[in-house]
Fold this sequence. Notes:
mainly alpha
Amino acid sequence: MTIVSHHPPGQTLLAIAAALLTAASAARAEVPGLPATATPADRAIAALLHADLSAGQSRLEAVRGLYTQARTAAPNDPRLEYAYSLVLQRLFQSTEARRHLDLALTLNPRFAPANQAVIRELLKARQFVDAGERLTGFANRLAADDPSAPDSAEWVGRIVSAVILAIGTPDAQQLFAYHDRMLRTSLPPVLLIRYEVGFANVQRELELLTDSIGEARSTAESSRELAKARIDADLVKDQQEIKKRQQDAEKSRQKWDEWIVDQTAKADDLLAEQEKRFRELENAATVQLQSVTALRLTLNRIDSGLLQPQRPPSGINSGLIPVAFATPNRDAVELQLAIEERRLAALYDQQAAIARAASNTVATRRNAVAQYQQATGVVLNEAASLSRWEKRNASIAANMKKSAEKKPALVATLEARIRSLNTWDPADFESERQRLLSDLGLEPNSQ
Length: 447
């Protein structure tokens, strides 16, 4: 194996020597928990899976050294190639990890973990046609006398059911419904039973999530109606107060004396500051509304198929399966939309607070006028200002009602879970690592 390094020659040799020594020490170390009957190949693979995977070039070189030694004990072993691909992926070496994943399938086309990893990758890239072909090919290669075949058949049932019921596009749902019919006629009876178990389990789990969404919607509906009633009551109260002040202001339209002019000038300055702030929030709300609209358009384009997965440049992924690196993630867009809608609601709440503060300022100004009304008979004409805030309060109440109509965050989260493959087929480095170690005879979570 050729090791590429950017260190000066002397440092490179030292780094390689240190890495090989580390790998040799790790290979000689006995992995605790392995049964006495473990083969040298089992021990080599377990040592690789127990390697220190912290970041750093030296760690990568040590892992490569472990792999080189493991190939001596386990030549042409798909388990080793798959384990090494997991470790490389964990160390952010995606291209090299893909090569070893493909090699595992070349060595054994029936090897379940590698087949499942490729199928997951295709489904996450929304490449349902290729995923369906891979899935049916994998299922048709299952042998009834293989001890691992029933578990694989159940996994196939879960994936087919998840695409049909939750994560697939309409075209993908039709395609996988066809695959479902074909698999039900082609699988041996002992595997068909487990296939149907996996298929039905997704149905039951989906029903539970759907019930949770229904409960969340019902709770949100009750809260929404209460919020609307409170908004309407506050609006009526504000309108009555403003109307009363308008009637009081209309009783007298004569000029203030100097003291009153000074008091009203201060109030007017404060109102001007509040109005400036209100307009700033109004502009911010307009910009935020544009962001919400843009995200909704993006969702519509994703749903209508206008945004298609992009293939990587030639040479980056020369394996069996192309990967989409720039595909817009619909779940991420929808969650971002929920965030942007909450920000818009927050801007409307700030506008409401400014409106209430302005009403308080107008009330203070009105009280100053009332103190001199008997003595001077002078009252400023406040009708225009009060009328303006009356209209704004009505507009704010309407915006707050619209905000209350937005999709509850819990509902959005549950709906995103339904559309996520991880909900129906959770798989990460640690779970796959424990799965391989269990196959080697090591107890789960053994150190």
